[in-house]
Specification:
Layout lengths: L2 H4 L5 E6 L3 E7 L9 E6 L4 E5 L27 H15 L3 E4 L2 E4 L11 H7 L11 H14 L7
Antiparallel strand pairs: 1-2, 2-3, 3-4, 5-6
Length: about 160
């Protein structure tokens, strides 16, 4: 599908903001080849003409993907999508960990959390990565499982 076909009335996008970094907006009319700006509606209801001199704004993910525990599951993976998803997980779900494929992204909560006790260790022990919420213990469990399957001293 050509990129222009994605920018129709009602399409949700992210636009840069000097204070918030990225803010959500939605197209108030279809974008046509040759247009040099988009007519956008902000969350406040205010409309603005957004210059596309530096390219079209990044598309927003569907609401159903908000707070996804693996960033690779997002339809659109770019700076505003990653920052928004981490924001949702941290502030609304109190989740400091998020996967990005096999990488674990951690947000420093700047406080001690009760997520490292014996009961949490036991909950992650023997579990598959996909079966549990993102956590450092899940990554450690997977590393241990992989290490026991293929010992370093084994010659291949």
């Amino acid at each position: 599908m050509p990129a222009l076909a994605l920018y129709t009335k009602g399409t949700r996008v992210w636009i840069p903001d000097p204070e918030e970094v990225w803010i959500p907006a939605k197209l108030s009319q279809d974008f046509k080849d040759g247009d040099n700006s988009l007519l956008l509606q902000l969350g406040s209801g205010m409309e603005l003409h957004y210059s596309i001199g530096n390219g079209l704004p990044p598309l927003r993910n569907p609401d159903i993907l908000e707070g996804e525990n693996d960033l690779t599951a997002l339809s659109y993976l770019h700076e505003p999508a990653v920052l928004h998803n981490l924001h949702i997980r941290f502030l609304e779900s109190n989740s400091i960990y998020t996967y990005c494929g096999i990488v674990l992204v951690a947000i420093n909560p700047y406080e001690s959390l009760p997520i490292y006790g014996e009961e949490v260790i036991d909950a992650y022990s023997g579990q598959n990565v996909a079966d549990m919420d993102p956590h450092i213990f899940s990554v450690a469990e997977e590393a241990y499982r992989q290490m026991t399957r293929s010992p370093l001293w084994e010659v291949h």
